[in-house]
Specification:
By secondary structure, the protein is an alpha/beta fold. It contains 14 helices and twelve strands. The longest helix is centred in the last third of the chain and has 25 residues, at 313-337.
């Protein structure tokens, strides 16, 4: 998207959002990183991801005030999780409001990924806008995916999350394995012959491998994002516990049944008009298992592969590209003047 907006290749330098998973000191918006940015960068984009929800972005408030190039916050989320009683509650590691306010106030463009995040931030900083997820644009880049091996038959994919890593009450965690097993039985009853468990996180492999023994279903994992997208693009059907799989698959026209179990996921599904393809694991309670089976059977007779994504995705895509063009103009202004307009406004 950035290359399309600029009309050419531009240099993109990646920094980890946090040093939490990286021993490098060059992470986040810290003094050393901002010093480097001010020396050679022309613009900064933070995102996308759950950086607010997990507080997984390092920010030094004083250094942030010294940031010179324009700053764009793109497709970040802050959502609540279900506590043990099934009520939505803040995570214990959620980003502090003070840190969030400092980021939004310094940004030139702030686009939240979902309405739940946007409504929360808007109460703190009215400049935030709803920007959705850039994944909705994947279809137009489908021809950039590498071909899968000649003998690869993708079949039906079940994208899973290890239950202990799902922030839901234990009563629902303990039922996930059985839910997936029954879904496999239903899919086989519907004629799906090749079924595989898809992982986009290596931490899920242990859970995924269990189905090799209970249901003779193999797991597949790749750390290559292009292969991962290629699998979703070529699948016959996707049953997904992960938005990482749901949104790309829908963008590619693959039929999907999506399982949600936190606020940001359900909020984004509402924003993108895919509620009819989603089931809420927690809010449906004891009725979830029956609804899952019914949905699998009803979709087999009513949904056609290759349908276009929801009609308003094109409008949302246009808005995202408009905001990136706006960001490019801010960068042009910074390059021309040597100063960022924000610094003129604030003195």
């Amino acid at each position: 998207m950035i290359y399309d907006v600029f009309g050419r290749l531009v240099s993109i330098i990646d920094f980890p959002a946090s040093s939490k998973y990286d021993s490098s000191s060059r992470a986040g918006l810290t003094p050393s990183v901002i010093h480097e940015i001010n020396r050679f960068a022309d613009g900064v984009i933070v995102g996308g991801g759950n950086l607010y929800e997990n507080n997984e972005i390092d920010v030094d408030g004083q250094a942030l005030k010294a940031l010179l190039p324009p700053l764009m916050l793109f497709s970040n989320s802050r959502g609540r999780i279900y506590d043990r009683k099934g009520h939505l509650s803040d995570r214990t590691d959620v980003i502090p409001d003070e840190k969030l306010i400092s980021l939004i106030n310094r940004s030139d463009i702030s686009l939240s990924r979902d309405s739940a995040t946007h409504e929360y931030i808007k109460r703190l900083c009215p400049t935030d806008m709803l920007g959705w997820c850039p994944t909705i644009n994947l279809r137009q880049y489908r021809d950039r995916l590498p071909p899968l091996p000649d003998k690869e038959t993708v079949g039906t994919l079940i994208s899973v999350r290890t239950p202990t890593l799902m922030n839901i009450p234990y009563v629902y965690q303990s039922g996930v394995l059985n839910d997936v097993e029954e879904a496999i039985d239903s899919l086989r009853e519907l004629g799906h012959k090749r079924i595989r468990i898809l992982c986009n996180d290596s931490r899920d492999l242990d859970f995924a491998s269990a189905f090799r023994y209970t249901k003779k279903v193999d797991a597949i994992f790749t750390s290559d994002v292009y292969q991962y997208l290629g699998l979703l693009s070529g699948a016959d059907f996707v049953l997904s516990y992960r938005l990482h799989a749901t949104l790309p698959a829908i963008a590619f026209g693959t039929d999907v049944l999506n399982i949600v179990y936190d606020e940001r996921s359900s909020s984004l599904c509402g924003d993108l008009g895919i509620e009819d393809s989603s089931l809420n694991l927690v809010s449906m309670g004891s009725g979830f298992k029956a609804r899952l089976r019914d949905s699998l059977f009803s979709r087999a007779t009513t949904v056609r592969r290759g349908d276009d994504p929801r009609s308003d995705w094109n409008e949302k895509s246009k808005f995202q590209f408009d905001q990136l063009r706006r960001f490019r103009l801010l960068m042009d202004d910074y390059l021309t003047s040597g100063y960022h307009s924000r610094h003129f406004r604030t003195g």
